[in-house]
Specification:
Blueprint: H1 5-17, E1 27-32, E2 51-56, H2 63-66, E3 70-72, E4 88-92, H3 95-104, E5 114-116, H4 142-152, H5 167-173, H6 175-190
Parallel strand pairs: 1-2, 1-4, 3-4, 3-5
Length: 191
């Protein structure tokens, strides 16, 4: 079932009317129905209680799942410990489809959702050609982005990479970045 523009407008108004910060709610993953599950980096995480998966365009997340959330985006302020109370919002699809999904869910116009990016020096280990990514050096597999976002916000990322084939390479490639994120999260928690 596709959501009409009127329904999207209603969703945006509902999101803006409820400014709660979303603490304790699951993180939202909007996965395109054409995403090949055999290649999807998030496969295996669907049963985690801290993640809520929605299949675009068949099932879009309700407004209350998005309110106060932090949507990962390449062109935004850096995600950090101050965002720890916000549920994360991840668009899971090809770069070509992700832009369409972002608009269709209303995330491009929602004032009750903040856009955040990961530190620029987080590097992917996923072997792919990203011809449509606005900045291929910064493009990450969805599970890599989720893992880095957990660290950046001081969350415990244990188990996120358990099913990821390139986990060891990803952790090794980003060891210094992750150490810095952990230190920043610890310093923030001590305040």
């Amino acid at each position: 079932m596709r959501r009409s523009h009127a329904a999207t407008g209603y969703m945006l108004r509902a999101m803006e009317a409820n400014p709660d910060r979303g603490a304790g709610r699951p993180h939202v993953v909007v996965r395109h129905r054409k995403e090949r599950l055999s290649k999807c980096s998030l496969t295996g995480l669907e049963t985690r209680p801290d993640l809520a998966f929605y299949r675009y365009p068949d099932a879009l997340p309700p407004a209350e799942a998005l309110v106060g959330g932090a949507c990962l985006d390449l062109d935004a302020p850096v995600l950090g410990p101050e965002d720890a109370g916000r549920p994360l919002i991840v668009i899971d699809g090809t770069w070509r489809l992700a832009a369409r999904m972002y608009r269709a869910t209303g995330l491009d116009r929602a004032e009750a959702v903040v856009r955040r990016r990961l530190p620029d020096d987080v590097a992917t280990a996923y072997p792919r050609c990203q011809t449509l990514c606005p900045d291929p050096a910064r493009g990450l597999a969805s599970v890599e982005a989720l893992y880095a976002a957990y660290l950046a916000t001081g969350r415990d990322p244990r188990g996120l990479l358990d099913h990821y084939h390139w986990a060891e390479a990803f952790l090794a490639r980003n060891a210094a970045v992750f150490a810095r994120l952990l230190e920043a999260g610890s310093a923030s928690a001590a305040r």
